[in-house]
Design brief:
This protein has 470 residues and is an alpha/beta fold. The protein has helices at residues 19-24, 57-69, 83-86, 91-104, 131-156, 164-177, 187-192, 196-202, 242-245, 253-262, 265-268, 313-326, 340-346, 358-371, 405-414, 449-457, 460-468, and strands at 2-9, 34-39, 42-48, 77-82, 107-110, 116-119, 122-126, 181-185, 210-216, 223-227, 229-233, 274-283, 294-297, 303-306, 331-336, 351-355, 375-377, 395-396, 422-426, 432-433, 443-444. Helix 14 packs across helix 16. Presumably involved in the processing and regular turnover of intracellular proteins. Catalyzes the removal of unsubstituted N-terminal amino acids from various peptides.
Length: 470
């Protein structure tokens, strides 16, 4: 078993005798740097923290991830983490270090057509000071890290393995083992239940669609989570060009984030009343594919003209949001890799946030800042009504113009939440990395798990207090 001691070093720390050698090698303690040294019988890995005066959970998470990533090729590694050197003095800061180690050490590899290995480095905190705080924070961080990596596994699996029903069954087994109530609604029942959008998008594939419903707690739910689950998106008959299909196994990253977050309920928020609704389809061209110009009837009774089959996410989310509203939640949040426009506007590090309620939008923004899954609010624009209205049906799925597509997609979705406070997170940018970087492996990022977990863990009274003090 390989073992390494991990210590944090800041740019503004006092310089020890070994600093000259570090500086000569270019190590200054800047955030995102790492260095490995031999100290007697110990291998020591140094994580650059930046300036301690600017330390926060996001910086601690990134520093820990970077140093863990530097050992990504080492098997059977235990990272002995000196929390004192990181300056982690709160539960949230300790959790951020543990999360970062789990994130940076993650690796995923297919070992056969349907078999794979995944995991991360084992890590233990080197105890100091407030042991109870450390135990609580470390346990929270490990749980969050495991949930994020669970979502990454789901995104990284080949679409031939993770078909809609395979996703539903895999997620159901996991969530039932955590004590949650799970129901899989399959193809015939979807048709009989009026889920015309889900059925239409899924009917081109030989792998049938499904809807996953998850319930925790009793009574009307405080929160409903909806995650887009397109296990592979070819664009349907409105076929994507080949380069655009290469990462389309990740079009179920929203669904994966919801599963990851719900898996944390027993750990972070036992007893909370939460529901999850996850539509699962494979969008392929085939003899039964929905055609541009077809009209479908949705779960809430509205009709929708499908003009572009590559704008499928809003079609299945319309049905899923209607179903979520039927549970009578206080709040609905959906998360989806929905539009290229969100990535073009915000890049790879922010999700686009659109909401029909200012207080809820503030909560999501604050949860994003605390969790590291950051969002940036964009407008819900009623003046775009003409872009979602059809001449032959109630709505259309294609706006007809290239501008404001984040807002026009959200405006359509807003019609299916029944007036309930609702927030939409378009994660097209941060959901997937085509190449590895210093902080993490290529593939699924697990974006959204920490954001949703933060929102789940908030009580209503905590959320109100937080909003009133910021």
């Amino acid at each position: 078993m390989n073992r390494v001691v991990v210590r944090g070093v800041a740019e503004d720390d006092a310089r020890p005798g070994a600093w000259d050698a570090r500086a000569a090698a270019g190590f200054t303690g800047a955030l995102g740097q790492s260095r490995v040294e031999q100290h007697g019988d110990e291998v020591v890995a140094l994580a650059g923290l930046g300036r301690r005066s600017q330390r926060g959970t996001t910086a601690l998470r990134r520093a820990a991830a970077t140093v863990a990533r530097s050992f990504h090729a080492v098997e059977d590694l235990v990272m002995d983490v000196d929390l004192a050197s990181f300056g982690a003095s709160s539960t949230a800061e300790v959790a951020a270090v543990a999360e970062g180690i789990a994130w940076g050490g993650y690796r995923f590899r297919m070992t056969g057509a349907e078999s794979y290995t995944s995991g991360t480095h084992a890590a233990i905190p080197r105890a100091h000071g407030a042991a109870d705080l450390e135990r609580e924070g470390w346990a929270r961080g490990e749980a969050l890290g495991a949930a994020v990596n669970l979502a990454r596994d789901l995104v990284n699996l080949p679409p031939s393995v993770l078909t809609p029903c395979a996703f539903a069954e895999r997620a159901a087994g996991l969530l039932r083992s955590r004590g949650l109530r799970v129901r899989i609604v399959r193809s015939d029942e979807l048709r009989d239940g009026g889920y015309g959008g889900i059925v239409a998008i899924g009917q081109g594939s030989t792998n049938p669609p499904a809807l996953l419903e998850v319930e925790a707690g009793e009574g009307p739910p405080e929160l409903a989570l909806v995650g887009k689950g397109v296990t592979f998106d070819s664009g349907g008959l409105s076929l994507k060009p080949a380069p655009a299909q290469m990462a389309m196994k990740s079009d179920m990253a929203g669904a994966a984030a919801v599963v990851g977050a719900l898996s944390l309920l027993p750990t972070l928020a036992r007893g909370r009343s939460v529901v999850g609704v996850i539509p699962l389809v494979e969008n392929l061209p085939g003899p039964g594919s929905v055609r541009p110009g077809d009209v479908v009837r949705l779960r809430d009774g509205a009709t929708l003209e499908i003009l572009d089959t590559d704008f499928e996410g809003r079609v299945i989310l319309a049905d899923a949001l209607s179903r979520a509203a039927e549970f009578g939640p206080e709040t609905i949040i959906d998360i989806a890799s929905l539009t290229y426009a969100a990535q073009h506007a915000l890049g790879d590090d922010f999700g686009a946030l659109v909401a029909n309620d200012d207080a809820l939008a503030a909560r999501v923004e604050q949860a994003g800042a605390r969790s590291g899954d950051r969002v940036w609010r964009m407008p819900l624009q009623p003046e775009l009504e003409a872009q979602i209205r059809s001449d032959v049906a109630d709505y259309k799925n294609f706006p007809g113009v290239a501008s404001a597509r984040v807002s026009s997609a959200a405006l359509l979705l807003s019609r299916f939440v029944g007036g309930i406070p609702w927030a939409h997170v378009d994660m097209a940018g941060p959901a997937f990395r085509p190449t590895a970087d210093a902080g993490g492996a290529a593939g699924g990022t697990g974006y959204g798990v920490r954001l949703l977990a933060e929102l789940i863990a908030q009580s209503r009274t905590t959320a109100v207090a937080t909003n009133s003090t910021r």
